[in-house]
From TrEMBL, chain A:
Ranges for region Disordered: 269-294
Polar residues: bias regions: 269-279
Source organism phylogeny: Bacteria, Bacillati, Actinomycetota, Actinomycetes, Kitasatosporales
Transmembrane regions: 35-58, 64-86, 107-129, 141-168, 180-199, 237-259, 319-337, 343-361, 389-409, 421-440, 461-487, 499-520
Keywords, comma-separated and alphabetical: Membrane, Transmembrane, Transmembrane helix
Domain of life: Bacteria
Keyword Ubl conjugation: no
Provenance organism: Streptomyces cylindrosporus
Protein name listed in UniProt: Transporter
Transmembrane listed as a keyword: yes
From TrEMBL, chain B:
Name of this protein: ABC transporter ATP-binding protein
Origin organism lineage: Bacteria, Bacillati, Actinomycetota, Actinomycetes, Kitasatosporales
SUPFAM superfamilies registered for this protein in UniProt: P-loop containing nucleoside triphosphate hydrolases
An MF annotation (GO) of this entry: ATP binding
Residues that span the membrane, as ranges: none
UniProt KW keywords: Antibiotic resistance, ATP-binding, Nucleotide-binding, Transport
Localization per record: Cell membrane
Membrane topology label: Peripheral membrane protein
Domain ABC transporter, first and last residues per copy: 5-235
Amino acid sequence: MTTDGATPADITSVVVRLKLSLLRNGLRQSGGRRAAYVVSAVVVLLFGALQLLGLIALRGHAHAEAVVVLLVAVLALGWAVMPLFFPGGDETLDPTRLVMLPLRPRPLVRALLAASLVGIGPLFTLLLLTGSVITVAHGGAAYAVAVVGVVLALLVCVALARAVAAANIRLLTSRKGRDLAVLSGLVIAIGAQLVNFGAQRLGSSGLSQLEPAGDVLRWVPPASAIGAVDSASEGSYGVAVLQLALSAGALVALIAVWARHLTKLMTSPDGSTLQSATDQPARDPGTSGGLARLLPAGRTGTVMERSLRYVWRDPKTKAAWVTSLAIGLIVPVFNALQGTGSIYFACFAAGMLGIQMYNQFGQDTSAFWMVATTISSARDAYVELRGRALALLVITLPYATLVTVLTTAMLGDWPRLPEALGLSFALLGAMLATGAWTSARFPYSIPQEGYKNVAPGQTGLAWISIFGGMVSAALLTAPVIAATIWANVAKNGDDWGWLLLPAGAAYGTAITLTGLHLAAPRTASRLPEILTAVSKG
Amino acid sequence: MTSAVSVRGLWKRFGQQVAVAGIDLELPAGKFIGLVGPNGAGKTTTLSMVTGLLRPDHGTVEVVGHDVWRDPVAVKARIGVLPEGLRLFERLSGRELLGYSGRLRGLPGAEVERRATQLLDVLDLAGAQHKLVVDYSTGMRKKIGLAAALLHNPEVLFLDEPFEGVDPVSAQTIRGVLERYTASGATVVFSSHVMELVESLCDWVAVMAAGRIRAQGTLAEVRGQAPTLQRAFLELVGAGGRDAGSDLDWLGGGAR
């Protein structure tokens, strides 16, 4: 071994340089990535500068301490969950990559901690922390505490992320961890809704609402390091020292936990591919669960069963469905809540869920070959497409009906319920028809890893498929839309409005069947081309 | 001798690159056939075109007397396929995947269950049958893929690199199943670049390099005067006399 010359300082600089190289090489990979990085850096800096100004403007406000303490606590929470949802974001977060190097835990911890301080995230944190202490610091002693507080809080945030990552590294590098990462977009969307909701409440009832939370959080590290600054400003030096000590203690504890996990990771073998010595007991001996018994026999039921299982088990499919279900509900119901709604917004549910019929074979990925080897005629293709449409309807029909009834109930517009339902069903039918046809004509790959929903180079195809399909679907629904308008403007129109329910349902069914019949021969004759198109992910 | 597979003038280009340059093949029925060649020789492209997963630019393919592209009904029911580099429906458990595959091919549910149970037992997958395929190891994936390809009892089985990345125990299991299958008169066509394996398994070999067939015939015919198939192969593809290089003179002999 000839590594005895490497001192801890060397390792720290090596790891920091490694982080910089990874960052640089990542940017060198593609212009798009570089642009994205520059844009996000500018946005983060702008945002950081704005909040710095905002916080400084808050200086002297009665509830300033509650605000900054809460902000820092939320920031720390962000650091804690970030490695769980963005495991690919920082390769130096995965210490198992360094496992082959002869490194001692202590210098390694120091080196990795230093490397963690490089990047946009720490810079943003530093800006926010600085703004926070400027807001609450009054007097020389408070500024002295502030310097210590900012450093402590920053280190606690970084150590928190490292400790969480090290403790969960097996999860993060496993299949379940990657599944979790695909769903992270949803978590952010829901989080944004909650923030929005909270901000609206604050806007209506003022910052004093934050005081109870602030009273607790000023004792919770790393927010306590910022709370210490406020205490020092008020002359309670004892309290300030105690709060700083709390944060320092937390930092020591986090580093200890992290170092222990790190040592364990570096010295124990990766067990993720080991088979368990005792195989799981053969549960579910009947093999086909309750679901299969309710479905029709033959190819139809087989296809439906697989499609429905994928809605639940495949993270990409699940994320797409949850998004569609959520938007399909939120748009009509929230609009109705705010009094700006119309019963026709309920068609959003049918429209959003109908989108799931698009690019059916792309959702299969290259596993489509298993389907392709069993389709030998247009009839097979028809049954395959019909099975997929039926699986979709199992969820969509009750859901669209429910959303329409709910919207109607909120608006109290019961006489219009039949025509809204009829319109929904007609639109759904048109979406299924165009979805089946574009699935056969314009298939594209959906990459299984990462956040992209279109493989590189197929964006044009995806646009044609989705937007062309949606415009066509809208045009195909035109007769029912025209009938609805007529029922609303004609003199005796209201008497005929109820007829739009059966008419819309019949029209939707007819147009779906027509679409499937047109798509089936195209699918059967283009199997190799479809397979090539969907195998790029 | 009847042909299981008959290929005439098969061509495939990808842009500028010619992957398969007009090959002719007559593969006899009831044999264990190896398609060998270095990486990039066009083995996967050829097998994809023969099994109907890739459309050729020119040429015809007949499997047990039926044209693959004009009579897919007759062909698809008679062949089993295990492609390389394509996914399975990995969010199904092993047993669910077999059930799905069998019922798509129109087998009755009870029969599918019976055959699946036996295949899972023989291929040593019974303990993992309720695990999702996404959590399977490479060897387990190959075995579940093989089970899915055998489920409908095809006349001709096409396997692309069935032993690639498979541990010796799983490889022996796969081998046993395939030997039993060919003994009953069925045909196996598989691709590989491991010559020892091909030599010990196959009675008929086709050698491919740079998109062309360099030799085809019984193992003895292709081997000719060479002591091993490996030697014969290296000469056929023109890589016979290459040495590892004398530049690495520092390598070995203790650290300096």
